[in-house]
Amino acid sequence: YQTKLEFALKLGYSEEQVQLVLNKLGTDALINDILGELVKLGNKTETDQTVTNANTSVMREASSVESQRSESPLQEDVTEDGDNLRPIVIDGSNVAMSHGNKEVFSCRGIKLAVDWFLERGHKDVTVFVPAWRKEQSRPDALITDQEILRKLEKEKILVFTPSRRVQGRRVVCYDDRFIVKLAFESDGIIVSNDNYRDLANEKPEWKKFIDERLLMYSFVNDKFMPPDDPLGRHGPSLDNFLRKKPIVPEHKKQPCPYGKKCTYGHKCKYYHPERGNQPQRSVADELRAMSR
Question: Maximum distance among all alpha carbons in the chain?
């Protein structure tokens, strides 16, 4: 009975339909006769179909509730494990100029990036901006929403890198060095579209760190969007990239669009979460096994 039931379920039939057929034909009925009756049941009235679909949906809802219960500890760990998230160091100038289309220093872009990480649960977020950005906007250095910088500084998120004037000339400290150094020492993530090639050439350990911990991004209007695959298609997902210890399993393959109704078995090139690590035979292999 179990073998016939599993075979019918793979073809998309419900357990109630299998029981109806076996009650009619008997438990010793051949698989071909059972399939014939199942096909006839597929042509029944819309009323019967509605009842069957309702029963099936109830079973699926119950199974989904059970699966959610079994997965809830992992989900709680993902949402509540804020200590497992890496520190974030944001290149404020790079983000602000990117949001301002390289024409305006847009402080709103910095706020959007900071909010994106805070909403994901990151507690350690630092932004570096040159101190001369406190000065009033000029035609050759346009800046918008400047009050955001003051607000982020009060919240101890934004840090101004030192600068001063010597005999009318501005002396500016290299803010990129602050960014890379803090991220390296805190084992964090650098958020920037800059490759920091000059700093990478200074120290081999910095080069390796920049290659492995640089998170690039894009702005779609006012939406901050980092890539889902920060290190390429064969690298970790964004969720695991931002964590000290990976929690979310890496699924390299795309989920199968046919789901449980897939007839390719272990030959299917797509990912089947319902199978786990167990191989599944195709319908053709099942028929050959049953005929033997």
Answer: 101
CA 228 to chain CA centroid, Å, is 6
How many whole angstroms separate alpha carbon 290 and alpha carbon 141?
A: 77
The domain tally of the chain equals 3
Domain membership flag for residue 8: yes
Same domain, 139 and 203: yes
**47 within domain boundaries:** no
Say if residue 214 is in the same domain as residue 134. Answer: yes
| Host domain of residue 14 | 1-42
- Could you give the CA distance from residue 288 to residue 285 in angstroms, rounded to a whole number? 5
Record the tokens describing residue 55, joined without a space. Answer: 């029963």
Q: At what angle do helices 175-186 and 204-213 cross, to 10 degrees?
A: 80
Query: Are 4 and 105 in the same domain?
Result: no
Burial of 28 (0-12, 13-18, 19+ CB in 10 A): exposed
What is the pLDDT tens value at each position of the chain, 292 positions in all? 777 777 777 777 777 887 787 788 777 777 777 777 777 776 553 445 554 454 555 455 545 544 444 444 444 444 446 688 999 999 999 999 999 999 999 999 999 999 999 999 999 999 999 999 988 888 888 999 999 999 999 999 999 998 877 877 778 888 999 999 999 999 999 999 999 999 999 889 999 999 999 999 999 989 999 999 999 877 889 999 999 988 756 555 567 777 777 877 766 766 666 665 555 555 566 666 677 6
Q: Write down the pTM of the prediction.
A: 0.59
Determine, yes or no, domain membership for 74.
Answer: no
The answer to whether residues 11 and 89 belong to one domain is no
Q: With contact defined as beta carbons under 8 Å apart, do 20 and 292 qualify?
A: no
H or E stretch covering 170: strand 169-172
